[in-house]
Amino acid sequence: MTDDLFESISQRGSAEEAPENIRIHEIANELRRCCQLYEAQLRNGEENVSRFEIEQRAAELYAKNNHLWIPLSEVFDLGVPGPSGNENDLYVSNNLIYKVNNLLSSGSILSHFDKMVWHNTLFYETAYSFHAFTGVDGRTIMPVFVQRLVKDAFPATRIEIDTYMAALGFEKISENGRFTNGIFEVWDLLPRNVLVDDEGDLFVVDAEIKRLQ
Question: Which among 37, 77, 159, 211 is placed 20 to 30 Å from 182, CA to CA?
Fold first, then answer.
């Protein structure tokens, strides 16, 4: 597990931190507390459980206690299934898109929360909000985040992406859509993950992000 999430990273300053990030911080702090309690119980019982399993059980307990649990059988109620990737199953409802993440990329619930905070900090126009957890009772737990649907847009060109990231202070470090500003490294910024509307505005709808500092 990581403590990176609990540091203030907003470029706006803590007084102006995005409300989406404030809520993600609050939930992550509570999950961290639940993990510590669960670890203590396991130590007393001398059970050998991985950190990832501890996160999953703590998240399931938190979700069910706070009415933030969606049974996996009810996930389709979120909206119309959209094109899914390696880590996200998508469901579209009106102006929103729900992303059910299988954690294959992050490998951790708290690490995925980190990524959402960083995305919101860098690309607030496509900010994520936490919606709920879903999964199979006592087994796999997956976070569900929601994002505003970007309508009437199409994939941006690589030149448009390069120009946009340069305007944000990022330097391109490879041809596969990888950039850095010395604080964050962002990659997978390819046309399938960056949209442009008819006014020429770009929207990063998905990206891999890690913090360097």
Answer: 159
